[in-house]
TrEMBL record:
Its EC number is 2.6.1.83. This is LL-diaminopimelate aminotransferase. InterPro entries: Aminotransferase_I/II_large (IPR004839), DapL/ALD1 (IPR019942), PyrdxlP-dep_Trfase (IPR015424), PyrdxlP-dep_Trfase_major (IPR015421), PyrdxlP-dep_Trfase_small (IPR015422). It comes from Roseibacillus persicicus. Its cofactor is pyridoxal 5'-phosphate.
Length: 410
């Protein structure tokens, strides 16, 4: 009989968001009147229409495919030059990243899991706690961990606690590690990291020949001009960091799917025998073998987000979601809850009232307010006692959620 990858059996319950969807579905079936009032602030999925610039570019690209003269089949696996160049011009022109260091993909979730293909089995891996669950689960799947303990912490991972005391940016560990996952602006806590904090991480990584996997999917939501938008703004990061970026949240591409990885030529890993190997070259090789590129119309749509019109439309979306975040923050603060995030990120991270657990809060918000939130403990043991509210919603829904929070939790 065919053998399965038994590492999958170490995974705890289902992946967080499908698990929430399952619970919400069961609730809706059992409570049809309440179901009609349901507002979803759980998964961070965009709600507002796709920018017109992207729609027009995608339509034009589809029409190109409809004529023999302009038809395109397989594209370059690493992405079309037009998009790789636009990405550099609009994000990295001041920090010395080249178009041949950009790898266009179908999104950051896949990239942040797939990267493990090119990294070896014996790395010491640090993750923040709470954390975007993909980083943990993909390490479990590939066999980089032992079993989970009763708090859900996997043997073999180094957990870096993030809490209100450290503003949800972890302290540098005492021990050396080889890989560090950092996500700023942060999912789930909505925290941002300062230049000094990121500099300390880059220095640590260089000292230990470690690689930082820097997830900047929420970069577009940064409001504070002092907050770095890319890890490459930090000196030395070109030698030790890969960056993951996405069009999902700024351009409304969660369903369209497009993102990119930055793999600088100056980042190296090592073989067991100590030979230095270019991470960029391995990622390019992996991409050519396992991927046929993001679709042409999608890449044209992504490129159009950088047109003057596209930039203005993206900016409107960001303003819209960040205003929701402000309203949600204020509503929670007004009833005396401790609130974090929501200032440079579309997530508001809230401490549950005294003695209420994250999942109790989830059930209570669903049953009493018909609002879906994400329980903090779903992001790791250190998320226990918190819940996350996503600001991705219509204004009308965000305002209604604020009212219900005040009424039901106040
Ligand atoms: C989230 O809600 O944490 C995000 O939507 C997850 C994702 O982007 O994959």
């Amino acid at each position: 009989m065919a053998r399965i990858n038994e590492n999958f059996l170490k995974l705890k319950a289902g992946y967080l968001f499908p698990e929430i969807a399952r619970r919400v579905k069961a609730f809706n079936e059992a409570n049809p009147e309440k179901a009609a009032r349901l507002i979803r602030c759980g998964i961070g999925d965009v709600t507002e229409p796709l920018p017109e610039a992207a729609r027009n570019a995608m339509k034009a690209a589809v029409d190109e495919l409809g004529s023999r003269d302009t038809f395109r089949g397989y594209g370059p696996e690493q992405g079309y030059d037009f998009l790789r160049e636009s990405i550099v011009e609009n994000n990295y022109s001041k920090v010395g990243i080249g178009a041949d260091e950009i790898f266009v993909s179908d999104g950051s979730k896949c990239d942040s899991g797939n990267i493990l293909d090119i990294l070896g089995p014996n790395n010491r891996i640090a993750i923040t706690d709470p954390v975007y669950p993909v980083y943990v689960d993909t390490n479990v799947m590939i066999g980089n961990t032992g079993e989970a303990d009763e708090d859900g912490r996997y043997e073999g991972l180094v957990y870096l606690p993030c809490n209100a005391e450290n503003n949800f940016v972890p302290a540098i560990p005492e021990e050396p590690v080889d890989l560090i996952y950092l996500c700023y602006p942060n999912n789930p806590t909505g925290a941002s990291a300062t230049r000094e904090q990121l500099t300390a991480w880059v220095e640590y990584a260089r000292k230990h020949d470690a690689i930082i996997l820097f997830d900047a999917a929420y970069e577009a939501f940064i409001q504070d001009p002092e907050v770095p938008r890319s890890i490459y703004e930090i000196e030395g990061a070109h030698e030790c960091a890969l960056e993951f970026r996405s069009f999902s949240k700024n351009g409304g591409f969660t369903g369209v799917r497009c993102g990119w990885v930055v793999a600088p030529k100056t980042v190296f890993g090592t073989t067991e025998t100590g030979k230095k190997i270019s991470v960029r070259d391995l990622w390019s090789r992996r991409t050519s073998t396992k991927f046929n590129g993001a679709s042409y119309p999608v890449q044209r749509g992504a490129e159009a987000l950088y047109s003057e019109e596209g930039k203005a439309q993206v900016s409107e979306l960001i303003t819209h979601y960040m205003e929701n975040a402000r309203l949600l923050r204020e509503a929670c603060e007004s009833i005396g809850l401790s609130v974090y995030g929501g200032e440079n990120a579309p997530y508001v991270w809230v401490a549950c009232p005294e003695g209420v657990s994250s999942w109790e809060m989830f059930d209570r918000m669903l049953d009493e307010a018909q609002v879906v939130i994400t329980p903090g403990s779903g992001f790791g043991a250190a998320g226990a006692g918190y819940f996350r509210i996503s600001a991705f919603n219509s204004r009308e829904n965000a305002i209604e959620v604020c009212e219900r929070i005040k009424k039901n939790l106040g």
